[in-house]
Amino acid sequence: MASAASRTSLLRTRIMDFITSTATLPLLLGCVGVFSLCKLLQWLRTRAYVRNAVVVITGATSGLGRECARVFHAAGAKLVLCGRNAEALEELTRELAASRATEVQTHKPYTVTFDLTDPGAIVGAAAEILQCFGYVDVLINNAGISYRGTIVDTSLDVDKRVMETNYFGPVALTKALLPSMIRRRQGHVVAISSIQGKISVPFRSAYAASKHATQAFFDCLRAEVEQHDIEVTVVSPGYIHTNLSLNAVTADGSKYGVMDKTTAQGRSPSQVARDVLAAVGKKKKDVVLADVAPSLAVYLRTLAPRLFFSLMASRARKEQKPKHC
Ligand SMILES: NC(=O)c1ccc[n+]([C@@H]2O[C@H](COP(=O)([O-])OP(=O)(O)OC[C@H]3O[C@@H](n4cnc5c(N)ncnc54)[C@H](OP(=O)(O)O)[C@@H]3O)[C@@H](O)[C@H]2O)c1
Ligand SMILES: *[C@@H]1O[C@H](CO)[C@@H](O)[C@H](O)[C@H]1NC(C)=O
């Protein structure tokens, strides 16, 4: 017995010696090395994918769109910045042109001013972009508007306005640019949706509906254009610290004008913009950029809908009616 025990302990020491002396360290270093190499290769691939690419960004005047403009510009993209405010677009262009780039050659952005609720203007903008550049490599449908209100008090005009901006606008712009992508057998369409494109929370009906529609449309598009070698990425962020809630519309169509606590505590737009660049570089199909709780809520909605609905109902009771409704 005693000799067996000592033999076991000897064996254990030998094994430990073997691990510490020969295998573990090189193995650990090897893993770190392979991991770093993969990261580096991925980074280089993203850089190569975006460098000199024609990238159209809507809603570039503020928040996430503006940060995407900075990130893609620094990566060497030929930017087309879109928004309603020509002055804000020019200011951003000047800022980007003045920024000192390091390794990659950067390009002065081109700006196009139009309103996404105006279908004619969208067609005109797409024609202008194609005339100027000949093609579009990446279209980032980022512009959007949020909403606060109870369904019972909200005028249908408000529902339509949110839908026009967040859904019909991106759909129209995508359709206007798609034929040229198909002809070229190259292109990448990105939709900045929201975690609210996967779950609905109370007092956000029009917004959540527009984002659910966005998710559905671009999922469908992905399936249809894969045969033409066109990529589709749907990005669903959680809260981001932007002016989105300040710019949100209320039940009567007026501006909400409040920086919500949830928005103020959200992720930094520059961090989310870097994640968008990485998702585009990796040609991801669907990305959720949110914390654990909202990500879990998406699963809860699918796996335990009754529980999810009762949680939302109690949240609605607690929040009551927002003041502006
Ligand atoms: N902030 C968040 O918590 C959050 C979370 C998930 C998803 N998102 C999504 O992220 C995207 C960017 O929003 P953000 O947070 O950066 O908000 P933001 O700071 O309010 O920016 C919204 C952008 O959309 C543009 N826009 C609004 N209505 C437009 C219209 N009718 N025509 C053309 N452009 C219009 C605005 O441009 P102008 O007003 O200058 O014309 C602005 O550049 C949106 O799709 C939003 O739904 C945001
Ligand atoms: C929010 O709006 C203010 C005033 O228009 C602007 O100065 C600021 O840059 C905006 N913030 C973001 C994150 O877009």
TrEMBL record:
<comment type="similarity">
    <text>Belongs to the short-chain dehydrogenases/reductases (SDR) family.</text>
</comment>
<dbReference type="InterPro" id="IPR057326">
    <property type="entry name" value="KR_dom"/>
</dbReference>
<protein>
    <recommendedName>
        <fullName>Dehydrogenase/reductase SDR family member 7B</fullName>
    </recommendedName>
</protein>
<keyword id="KW-0812">Transmembrane</keyword>
<dbReference type="InterPro" id="IPR036291">
    <property type="entry name" value="NAD(P)-bd_dom_sf"/>
</dbReference>
<feature type="transmembrane region" description="Helical">
    <location>
        <begin position="18"/>
        <end position="41"/>
    </location>
</feature>
<dbReference type="GO" id="GO:0016616">
    <property type="term" value="F:oxidoreductase activity, acting on the CH-OH group of donors, NAD or NADP as acceptor"/>
</dbReference>
<comment type="function">
    <text>Putative oxidoreductase.</text>
</comment>
<keyword id="KW-0521">NADP</keyword>
<dbReference type="InterPro" id="IPR002347">
    <property type="entry name" value="SDR_fam"/>
</dbReference>
<feature type="domain" description="Ketoreductase">
    <location>
        <begin position="53"/>
        <end position="243"/>
    </location>
</feature>
<dbReference type="GO" id="GO:0005737">
    <property type="term" value="C:cytoplasm"/>
</dbReference>
<keyword id="KW-0520">NAD</keyword>
<dbReference type="GO" id="GO:0006629">
    <property type="term" value="P:lipid metabolic process"/>
</dbReference>
<dbReference type="InterPro" id="IPR020904">
    <property type="entry name" value="Sc_DH/Rdtase_CS"/>
</dbReference>
<keyword id="KW-1133">Transmembrane helix</keyword>
<dbReference type="GO" id="GO:0016020">
    <property type="term" value="C:membrane"/>
</dbReference>
<keyword id="KW-0472">Membrane</keyword>
<dbReference type="Pfam" id="PF00106">
    <property type="entry name" value="adh_short"/>
</dbReference>
<keyword id="KW-0560">Oxidoreductase</keyword>
